[in-house]
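dumping this here before i forget
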Amino acid sequence: MSPRKFFVGGNWKMSGDKKSLGELIQTLNGTKVPADTNVNCYKLPKGAFMGEISPAMIKDVGVTWVILGHSERKHVFGESDELIGQKVAHALAEGLGVIACIGEKLDKREGSITEKVVFHQTTAIADNVKDWSKVVLTYESVWATGTGKTVTPQQAQEVHEKLRGWLKSNVSEAVAQSTRIIYGGLVTGGTCKELASQADVDGFLVGGASLKPEFVEIINAKH
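structure:
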């Protein structure tokens, strides 16, 4: 089986302006880095859903990947695992690749139920996937966001390894070996290489650092 291809997504969220993003895009274009991911979509092709965007609309502008289930969608906008599963199903049916996010908050981590939480979230995604070649799983260490906690590369690897084990037990050995599991916690130019060296970390979903020139360094963390 061929090695899993390193995968890096930049999550700009609701950040930047025309000038700063234009400069960043010029920097990325200079390195010939492909960039086409969209953040979030709805579970239906069209309708009266203020503020939403459909997979069909995303594809119409040439975008091929979408981020679904991000922690901010869960904890700020109240998206349930069921709704995220429905979004995954519709996005895949429409031909988009899906970056599906999972992760636990600090109280779950300290309550020693990380596996229970992330496996439940992964089940809601897996139940709606037929073609795993179009899915990238993202582990978000939500427990370390804004809490003063620091995630070590070894802690990230531990969860990624358990997720791969879940895929092996609940989907198949082939899917477990081929599916990319990327890390969605704090990643910087200074931390990316050690994180990328972990056996089950297949890339990153990068937040704040994706708005900075160091994003190129993160993209090239395996080189």
